[in-house]
Amino acid sequence: MKFVSWNVNGIRACLKKGFLDYFNQMDADFFCIQETKCQEGQVELPLDGYYQFWNDAEKKGYSGMAIFTKHPPLSVNYGVGEKECESEGRIITLEYDLFYLVNVYTPNSQRDLARLDKRLQWEDELFVYLKQLDAEKPVIYCGDLNVAHQEIDLKNAKSNIGNSGFTIEEREKMTRLLSEGFTDTFRFLYPNKTDAYTWWSYMNKVRERNIGWRIDYFIVSNCIRDAIIDSQIHSAVLGSDHCPIVLTLNEELLKTKKISI
């Protein structure tokens, strides 16, 4: 079972840069995108065989997300009731028999950290939500989470300590989640892999020199981590300032529940 997540930094722009070629090549069961920057009716996506679920921001040209899937869900939920960000199109949850899929576009704390307090409130509300879901069935949580968790997850760690996306507070929220029953799938498989990034600044030659950050994640409930086959970063795929990430799970292990808790 294949899952893809990609912050497309504007789906209309990404369509002009090969989005559909990559989408069709991947043939994923679930394809999650963030930062669509448009309303659903403003773009036509010929995705034969896929159900489309969109969560648009009220503000045009801002935020937004979608999930494209071959599998009809049992239920769909938009947001978790968070007051500050519920109008920004930042969460979609699809429920299935074996798991919840939660696609998230986490608010940025902004360069001057003006939104850090709101970001931390968001993290607390999302944590409670994920724990509630996890108590019912396993969770597959993905998206642009706007945090590099450890120093290994960005190129210039020391000079970025305290900056947006690498504050102690943001990193501690991720640490809390991973200590409360969840697994970062990439680090589970590749704990010491360096120079593995998912976002690069548009500044000159930054991506060519691989001066990046790993801020896009697939995180799963610990009880299904033995079903992880691979967790990849497709850094060679262009079209956005982020690259896609891909999670492959063993569907038979999920079905038969031959999983460790």
SSE topology:
Elements: E1 2-7, H1 11-15, H2 19-26, E2 30-34, E3 51-55, E4 65-69, E5 75-78, E6 91-95, E7 100-105, H3 116-136, E8 139-144, H4 157-160, H5 168-178, E9 182-184, H6 185-189, E10 199-200, E11 212-213, E12 216-221, E13 228-233, E14 245-249, H7 251-256
Parallel strand pairs: 1-2, 7-8
Antiparallel strand pairs: 1-14, 2-4, 3-4, 5-6, 6-7, 8-12, 9-12, 10-11, 13-14
Keywords: Hydrolase, Magnesium, Manganese, Metal-binding
EC number: 3.1.11.2
Site (Important for catalytic activity): 216
Give a structural overview.
23% of the residues lie in helices and 25% in strands. With 261 residues, it is of the alpha+beta class. It has a single domain, classed as Deoxyribonuclease I, Chain A (4-Layer Sandwich). Strand 6 and strand 7 (100-105) form a beta hairpin. Helix 3 packs parallel to helix 5 (168-178). The longest helix has 21 residues, at 116-136. Keywords: Hydrolase, Magnesium, Manganese, Metal-binding. Belongs to the DNA repair enzymes AP/ExoA family. Its cofactor is Mg(2+); Mn(2+).
